[in-house]
Amino acid sequence: MLASHQQGLERLTHYIPKIEALARHDGLDYDPVDFELVPNTFMMEVAVYGLPIRMPHWSFGVRYIHQHVQHRMGGSHIFEVVFPGKPNRAFLVADNGLAQNALVIAHVLGHADFSKNNALFARMQQQVGYHIVTEAAERARSIQAAIEEHGQQRVERVLDAALALEQHIDVDLPIHRPDYPTHIVPKPNRKPTGFRSRYADLPGEKAAPVQRRQRATIPPYPESDLLWFIARYAPDMEGWERDIFLAVREESFYFYPVFACQIMNEGWASYWHARLLREADFLPDSLYLDAIKSHSDVIRPYASGKNIALSLNPYHIGFAMWEHLIETEGLDRALFIRAEEDDFSFIRNHLGEALVEKLQLLSYRAREDQIRGVHIQIEDTDIGTLREQLISPKFNFAAPHVQAVELSSDGSLMLRHDHAADGRGLDLDRAQKVLEYIALVWRRPVALETIDDEGKDTTLVVQ
Questions:
Q1: Is residue 357 part of a domain?
Q2: pTM of this prediction?
Q3: Are 254 and 93 in contact (CB under 8 A)?
Q4: Rg from Cα positions in the chain
Q5: pLDDT under 70: residue ranges of the chain
Q6: Preceding omega of 445 cis (within 30 degrees of 0)
Q7: Which of 88, 101, 235, 399 is 20 to 30 Å from 279 by CA-CA measure?
Q8: How far apart are CA 355 and CA 319, in angstroms?
Q9: What is the largest CA-CA distance in the chain?
Q10: Domains in the chain: how many in total?
Q11: Is residue 305 in some structural domain?
Q12: Of 349, 370, 397, which residue sits at a domain end?
């Protein structure tokens, strides 16, 4: 197996520098990429954990089983996983053919260009650092050391709580942020005017006004970054527990741009792998034809065969949007959009009616019918509704908007769900479970204000 992997890498090595030179000639700008061929099982592990080595937790095992079953049933195929950095790290499946991996190399170069030049990716990379794979491995070793010192059960409880909140960060604030001020800064006294100004000029000693320092409330404003807040203000957390929370938080910052730019990023990489392969006259014709077939599989609109999925493939819609943009507005304009936008603005600003009609994008709903079974009905053709349906699952990192609003003098914590902003209530059973996780590390009463299924105010409490 190792020998075949090595032979595959040697054949790819012949094409990698040529594809890279073509990419730079066409205008792509990226940091070096380290390519590595790995077995399919290793690739599934990377896809599930999100990183080659990551902190150990039972939930990743559950995800791995799901991914493995999907793969065995033919519903999932992983071509590559790439980690932005300096250098970028790209893993290719050794079992894939030469044509597929040639496509993947070109695809990865598109990702590398996007992650280097997109403003959101660049901001997060600067904060997190450019060696996430190495840093994640070091965190995994630290957590293993904590397990050896404090026991599997205690460490797993902390990871349960931290990973249950991994989406609850505030990407508008920096990773390394200061604690809240402990006291309210008094406002400066206004200079007296009118009669008071004449009085102030009279001779004689005057008592200076007494300014009392007032302790600031915690939090001073509703706090959305729950991982940071708990790590900094939980009354009785130990240092190693706080470190785990901050480690999960830092990795969430790293993953956020991948989530918030998925349609743009995958579409950009798909556009460039198609273009580079088309222009790569050094590729044998047979290899090129096989690669283009793989391209068609990657950007197909929905699931293949009889089971048509009513969820759009981000590769497909992103590819079509970039292709349309470059054809109609030029490459320079596309490069500017790639640098400045994310999926929210990309969909709202550039998914026009002409493209929607060309792609036949419609809003569907599946309805149960006693005679016909599941009936698929076109629900809405309004382009504004379609745009919002595409991006609404991305708001707030796909998590309900829950904020810490009050830390009482006895250490109890009040959380509040902003259901008006979310437009919905919570799954109360799941919310109760997450609240129990939080209470295990907070070690004081924790409450959450939200609404129930009928829209009535309700408060969950864990003592």
A1: yes
A2: 0.83
A3: no
A4: 27
A5: 1-9, 47-50, 52-53, 56-78, 185-212, 298-312, 362-381
A6: no
A7: 88
A8: 12
A9: 100
A10: 2
A11: yes
A12: 397
Of the residues 347, 375, 397, the one at which a domain ends: 397
Pairing verdict, β 457-462 and 446-451: antiparallel
Same domain, 384 and 335: yes
Residues 418 and 438 in one domain: yes
- How many degrees, rounded to 5, is the angle at CA 104 between CA 343 and CA 93? 115
Check whether residue 324 and residue 389 sit in a common domain: yes
Q: Note whether residue 124 is domain-resident.
A: no
For residue 247, being part of any structural domain is answered with no
Quick one: pLDDT at residue 41?
79
Amino acid present at 331: L
Q: With helix as H, strand as E and coil as C, how does the chain read? A: CHHHHHHHHHHHHHHHHHHHHHHHHCCCCCCCEEEEEECHHHHHHHHHHCCCCCCCCHHHHHHHHHHHHHHHCCCCCCCEEEECCCCEEEEEECCCCHHHHHHHHHHHHHHHHHHHHCHHHHHHHHHHCCCHHHHHHHHHHHHHHHHHHHCHHHHHHHHHHHHHCCCCCCCCCCCCCCCCCCEECCCCCCCCCHHHHHHHCCCCCCCCCCCCCEECCCCCCCECCHHHHHHHHCCCCCHHHHHHHHHHHHHHHHHHHHHHCHHHHHHHHHHHHHHHHHHCCCCCHHHHHHHHHHHHHHCCCCCCCCCCCCCCCHHHHHHHHHHHHHHHHCHHHHHHHHHHCCHHHHHHHHCCHHHHHHHCCCEEEEEEECCCEEEEEEEECCHHHHHHHHHHHHHHHHCCCEEEEEECCCCCEEEEECHHHHCCCCCHHHHHHHHHHHHHHHCCCEEEEEECCCCCEEEEEEC
Q: 92 φ, ψ to 5°?
A: -115, 145
Amino acid at 85: G
What is the Cα–Cα distance from 116 to 88, expressed in whole angstroms?
10
As given in the structure block, the two tokens for residue 172 are: 């508008």
Judgement on whether residues 407 and 427 belong to the same structural domain of the protein: yes
Per-residue b or e along 216-238, where b marks 16 or more CB atoms closer than 10 Å to that residue's CB: eebbeeebbbbbbbbbbbbeebe
Give the range of the structural domain holding residue 441, as residue numbers without chain letter.
400-463
Same domain, 410 and 325: no
Same domain, 317 and 346: yes
Crossing angle between the packed helical segments 239-260 and 152-164, to the nearest 10 degrees: 40
Task: State the Cα–Cα distance between residues 293 and 297, nearest whole angstrom.
Answer: 6
Place of tokens 């909140």: 165
Amino acid identity for residue 230 in this structure: I
Interior angle at CA 128, CA 88 and CA 85, nearest 5: 5
- pLDDT, residue 291, reads 79
CB 98, CB 287: distance < 8 Å:
yes
417 and 438 fall within a common domain: yes
